[in-house]
Structure formats: structure tokens, C-alpha cells
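Run folding on both entries below.
>entry_1
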Amino acid sequence: MRKLLLTIPAAILLAAPAMSEEKITLTEKQQAMLDKRLEGRTAGEPKSCISSNDQRNMTVISDDLLLFSSSRNAKTIYVNKPYGGCRNADRNILVYRRSTAALCRGDIIQLVDNASGMTVGSCAFGEFVPYTKDAE
């Protein structure tokens, strides 16, 4: 029994990267918002962590897509796909621990109801894909 309990978490961790490759379906409005924010940018290699400076501005595009940047006009915007999605992320307040060092893949996001202030769920950040402005 003990062996079984140890192998289950390992199986979940091994499956986690596969979950981030799932196809994300966006509404027309969500797709337009994403296209506008990423216009003129090129995707780079995924990062495990982003600095505290790059966490200053978070935008929820959908339950499956979050954007981070240092400001609205930042040179680099990071796209994050929480593992398995983050159900109702667009309808709740997202709370996560902002450390002085970094925000990393696997860090937990708590969903807090706007009206009651109660925690209504949680999810975990995936990798952070940088989208950098193309040279003009």
C-alpha cells in the first residue's frame, strides 16, 4: 500500500507537462483580447519562473490562460497555462504568494469569491512562455 501511495504523486507529476499541451478553446472576445496583447510579439522558450518585477500586471484571458508583465506596455509578456486549467478564474479574485525572488511553475493560485471572500478553489501555474516585441 505504501508503495502505491508513493507512485501516484510521481505519475501525476509526469503527466503534468502533457496537460499543458492541451488545446485551449477561447471565445471570440477572449481571442481578440489575446491577439491584441500579443500583437507584434514572438514566442520564446518557456521558463519555469518569472521575476517579481514581471508579476506586477496579471490579466485573466480565460480559465486556461493568464498573462503577466511588468506593465501594460512591457517589452515581454508571459503567457501561463495553469495545469488542468483554473476553473472560474475570470469570475473570482486570484490570490498567489508574490515572493521577492520569483513566481514559478507549480506555485499554487487560490481562487477567492468576489462577494463572500471565501476560498472557492485552487490551481497551479504552468510554465511561463515569454512573448517579446519584435524589433522595429
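>entry_2
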Amino acid sequence: MTPEDVSKFIAYVLRHAPESIGLRLDAEGWADIDTLVRGANAGGRELAGADVVQAATSGAKRRYELSDDGKRIRALQGHSSPQVSRSFEVLVPPAQLFHGTATRFLDAIRVQGLLSGSRQHVHLSADEATALQVGGRHGKPHVLRVDSGRMHELGHVFHRAENGVWLTSIVPPEFLSEAK
């Protein structure tokens, strides 16, 4: 597998389907690296512990975290697995955040707002450039501005993952506008 394939596989397993390789995550999303490797190999994926560490420590996206002892890994956010219920500190967000999406989703978003879908949180970016990159992963990108300051004033809760991604449960449509 290429490094990108390894990272995508690990993201899939840690975020959505640990049971697909017989893996059990704790409530904070941690998995034993040796168990992950054994499960992947038993399922026909050639994977080594060094591949897992490489995926966790390389790249600008910082999707994963290694435990202090280097024996466990977890995805920082994006979970849909019911095994995981990460706790994040509640924080005051910046006045505005951004959400990157594909243009094909805009009609639904304008009616429903941003919903977490199968994930536990809506993911927001602190800057337009990052949101544009995120939107580009799903098709022709489009960036929406989120009035996170007003949302917070009205009681909406925000968190920030260790890699800087802002998280909230929903963004109603009245808090969305077009980015520049």
C-alpha cells in the first residue's frame, strides 16, 4: 500500500469500522497498534507498525495521535463508530469559521444547514484556504462562512480537536453565508 492508502485505511478503521478487522477502540478512540496491524494483515492488508507510525507522524493534516508510549493510535476527530465518544473541552470559537463542501451539496445545506450525518460532529476550518481544500476532496469546492460567534452567543457548543479542526453538532442555515 502507498502511504496515502495506509492513511485512508487507518482513517476508515479508526473512525468508522474498527470491527472490520476485529479491532476494539476505547471510549476515547485509542487502539493498540499491534492489534491494528494483526487485524489488517489477517484481513489481507499488508501493514507494519512502522506504516502506522508513519501515517500518524507525516503529512500536514495531522489526522492521528500516538500515545506517549507509542503503542496506541487514535483518529483525532471524524468518528462515526458508536464505540467512541471522545470528550473535548468546550471552547469559545473565533467570530467566524469556514466549511468546505462540494457545490452539489449546496441546495441541501441551504435548507438543512450543516448536519453531522454519520459523524459525531460538523467539521469547521479556521481559514478559507483549508476549507477550500476540504471541499475539493468531495467535488467542485465551495466555501461557506459560519457565524460561529453568534452561534456561541446563542448557546451552541464548540470544541477544537488537537489538529485545529473546530467541531460542533449542527450549523443551522441562518448562520451560514457565502465566503468571499
